[in-house]
Design goal:
This protein is α+β, with helices and mostly antiparallel strands. The protein has one domain. 18% of the residues lie in helices and 38% in strands. The longest helix has 9 residues. It is globular, with a radius of gyration of 13 Å.
Length: 96
């Protein structure tokens, strides 16, 4: 899922990561591999945020999903793996 700037900002206040800018050269390749998403990099690798379906959240909650790990300590290469749903949930809207 692609996030708005406001939702990216909200997520970044809750997780230790950096959002990859939409105009970054790697975004095209990442989108080809994983679909249209807002991508985040953290100390463990590449992640996205998927919306959570709950009765009362109205789509304002998202779960962090890991897509790739760093290949080595230099953090220059990512090794894709099956999507790994984490227990990390973020409020995407400030009202949430």
């Amino acid at each position: 899922m692609k996030l708005t700037e406001a939702r990216i900002d909200s997520a970044l206040h809750q997780i230790e990561a950096q959002a990859i800018p939409e105009n970054h050269p790697s975004t095209v390749q990442l989108s080809e591999l994983f679909g249209e998403h807002t991508f985040f990099l953290d100390t463990s690798g590449l992640a996205i945020i998927e919306p959570m379906k709950t009765d009362d959240s109205a789509g304002s909650l998202g779960r962090v999903v890991k897509l790739a790990r760093w290949g080595d300590e230099t953090r220059r290469n990512l090794s894709p793996h099956e999507p790994e749903y984490t227990d990390v949930v973020v409020a995407l809207d400030k009202a949430a």
